[in-house]
Amino acid sequence: MKIVVTGGLGFIGSHTVVELQKEGFEVVAIDNLSNSSENVLDGIERITGKKPIFEKMDLRDKSAVRNFFKKHPDVAGVIHFAASKAVGESVENPLLYYENNINTLVYLLQEVQHLSKANFIFSSSCTVYGQAESMPITEDASVQPAISPYGNTKQIGEEIINDVVKVTNINAILLRYFNPIGAHPSAEIGELPLGIPQNLVPFITQTAIGLREKLSVYGNDYPTSDGTAIRDYIHVVDIAKAHVVALQRLLEKKNSDKVETYNLGTGTGSSVLEVITTFEKVSNQKVNYQIVARREGDITSAYANTTKANDILGWKAASSLEDSLASAWKWEQKIRR
Predict the structure, then answer these.
(1) Residue 99 CA, distance from chain mean position
(2) pLDDT average, residue stretch 87-115
């Protein structure tokens, strides 16, 4: 079966392509290379023995999206990752985020509704919960007003999908993941942010290897045990495997609703300082960091209740924080050789 992965050369997308190919799917990866590299295709091929079909395309081009599906009418499912994803940047440049994250989703759904197998998996985020009222966060938690334009695009994206499935043949699964980190154990693919990293772990590894002078820890006055913000850090391979399981659920028509929603996390929250300390332990490196003011758009705490994904999808995160950070460090060392 032919599966389209948008943002297929990005961090989570590339790891999902690997897991799909391992399961025998034919994968078409779409990417505009705005935050990725075509070299990722070689890493995927070294892991799986097969290079996915690649289409360089900007999904903001509506006619290009239409022409793509004319060329590939036999698509059995779409996994949609392609989006801008940095909270801080979204606060500074909201129009970029609304154009890139909302328009592209609309153009995709306009074409997917015409497929005979209209299966759609949406890369959502725990940011839809805002600052949740209680921890761990279940899928039934009320969706709070978004704290950042990025979070708002994920909320709006989910609303669009919920509206569209009511009047089309599309079946969808929304995967709300927490904080993806790490790299493939082969160190053939991993997180490769262009420019200054927007996420914690690549900034830690780049600081440890000497590429960055100092890591900024945004705020130490949160109401947590050490004053730093808490997140649920999950290995990217665990997330990738969840996408394959979710896709198979749709293909086998096992979904109980036209839209299903699942949290993807470990169920454990770790503070920023705990992540730094754990990284130092697994890497034998000291991380030069400084405490700075809080960053607009950040919340105090977010970690998942994953019971629904565990019980219904039969999926569970397998890697520890130590495993994830060790794989991120192995990847960082490889790409800086």
Answers:
(1) 19
(2) 96
